[in-house]
Amino acid sequence: MSDDGRIIRLETEMGHVRAEIQGLKGSVEDVRTELHAFRADVAKEFGSVRTEMAKELGSVRADMERQSGSLRAEMEKQSGALRTEMATQLGTLKTSMERYMRLIITAGLGIVATLITMFATVVHALKWF
Q1: pLDDT tens sequence across 58-108
Q2: DSSP code for 94
Q3: CA pair distance 100, 122, nearest whole angstrom
Q4: How many angstroms separate the CA atoms of 70 and 67, rounded?
């Protein structure tokens, strides 16, 4: 083969290579377009998931706050009832202590009066002797 034939053959093959390269560039552009579309879809789906998670989190938070408020109200109610009962019991105990204190004082005064009477009787009896 002559040099001209080889050059023509190389030019022909280079044309095929260029055509193949152009085809690959088109394929790369198609892949790039699909990749961008995929990224957009993924971003859209993640945005949707984030929105839904935020909504659910808000719902859970609202439920927790409602139940916390309910529990707080119940505890305050029970605490109030306990305070009332303690105040009543303390008042009853105080009344009982005052009553028993008066009874002890009265009994003590009675004993002292009895001792004074006995002492006076003994002294009066000793006058006769």
Answers
A1: 888 888 888 888 888 889 888 989 999 999 999 999 999 999 999 999 999
A2: H
A3: 32
A4: 5
pLDDT at 1: 55
Tokens of 80: 């109030």
To which residue do tokens 């690959």 refer?
24
Each residue of 3-40: b (16+ CB within 10 Å) or e? Answer: eeeeeeeeeeeeeeeeeeeeeeeeeeeeeeeeeeeeee
Evaluate the CA torsion angle 55, 56, 59, 60 in order and state its sign. Answer: negative
**Token representation of residue 124:** 């009066």
pTM (predicted TM-score): 0.40
C-alpha–C-alpha distance, residues 64 and 58, integer Å:
10
In angstroms, rounded to a whole number, what is the distance separating the alpha carbons of residues 125 and 129? 7
The residue type at 127:
K
